[in-house]
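Hey,

The postdoc asked me to send both predictions to you directly instead of through the lab channel. I've kept everything plain text so nothing gets mangled by the mail client. Protein one:
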Amino acid sequence: MKKLTGKIALITGAESGIGQSIAVEFALQGADIVIAYLDDEVATQHTLSMVEKAGSRGTIIQADISDEQQVVRLFATAKQQFKQVDILVNSAGVRSADKLIHQMSFEEFEKTVRVNLFGTFLCCQNFVKHYSQRQGSGRIINITSVHEEIVSPGKTDYCASKSALRGLSRALAIEVADRQITVNNIAPGMILTQMNQRAVDDADYRVQLEQRIPVKTSGLPSDVAKVALFLASDDAAYITGTTQIIDGGLSLNRAPGAR
């Protein structure tokens, strides 16, 4: 028996990178997939074709998760097409504006927080509202970052959004535990996706960055997808309120002055 047979998974940011890899992994394990995307329809169609090739059903819904009404529409449409949503994966996100705080505009800070934190809040809120109407176990998986714990200069917007998301997830895990819904985070380190496009394109630059990683290699979206599958399955039914770090040991090696 496949681990997710009969389950419906809604995955935001599923047009590429980690979200896309999770969509395919879940489909291979029997789940039908709601592919939520922002604007890259070509990439989204590719995700859909891979989901269908894996033997599962898929549907595409466009939505800006930072907009409350679009998130309400996203879940209403998903429910119309699949009757229920069992698993929510919040993978959509934006990278830092990469500016020091005195150079960053409020609009830039707000955009990062609005997508990474507010968007995840809205999706979790609508999932819980929907789930209160049915029985069974539910799963919420939030893709955060090692920056939910470690910090970097020039990334106050990103670090703030991801560390706040850690608090949101832990509090929500307590709120919904009696409804048989688990809430867990996955915190990736250096994963070769569009957020690390320079490392994808420039091998010398990638090798330079990999020297900071104890295992001396970058991660792949599939590394994250395998952990997401575990958290979405019955194997993880007794796990909630946690963060699973996937970084090759990077977050253990972020204090160069330590002895």
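Protein two:
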Amino acid sequence: MKVVMVVLCCVFYCSALWADEVTIFASDDYRPVTFRNEQGKEDGIAYALIKHYEQLSGRKVIVDMASWKRSYLLAEKGKGGIIGLSKTKARLEIFDYSEPFYESIVGIVVKKGKEFPFDSVADLKGKLISVTNAASYGDEFDNALAIKLFKVDVNYTSDVRLKKLLYDRVDCAVVSNGERGLDDILKKDPELSNKRAEFAYLNKPLVRDPLYLAFHKSMKMQTFLIEFNRAIKDAKEKGVIPLAR
């Protein structure tokens, strides 16, 4: 009988330990939010936030970085959370969200000499725009795409998007984190590193995009999100992650 009780205790202990491990999916090419650095290690604002949450809570988080498309599809199936997600009307129906932890400034980059007046999504009419797999750039952009106001060329990595722009295969490209984001992409690629003068960043942002951690509603992770919100607040107060600009 004692042996049975010991075995049962071990089973419950292991189950509890496993339950404490949470998987969060993320992009490996979304600077400065989540990415792999020059050494191939996980890095970024959201990664630092997750590590801060682990330190505060004592819970283990498995960070699974891959393409944004893969990360989103797995999160959509309820296999884990996803960090760096923006809100849209459609997503609010299937995901529970944390508080925002960072605001990404999403802008439009063109080839130098091919600038055009840009004040709203309507100004993208007829353009072929290079975008990230499974990314959303706000309801206005998504709705305009749905009615075929413009076309998109979907690519996995940011350097490929800019190379297509450089060689006139697209009219413009969407880049996160403003001009700093553009500079980061160019610096990390040998072919693009000396091409900064060949790109122009249109002054007005496409969208200011608050980013969140989210879980599929079927996972019932509201309690976890409440804990994570405390970590967001603490991380901002302690300078672990930047405040909104």
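Summary for protein two, as requested: The helical segments are 2-20, 45-57, 68-76, 89-92, 139-146, 158-166, 178-187, 222-237.

Thanks,
C.
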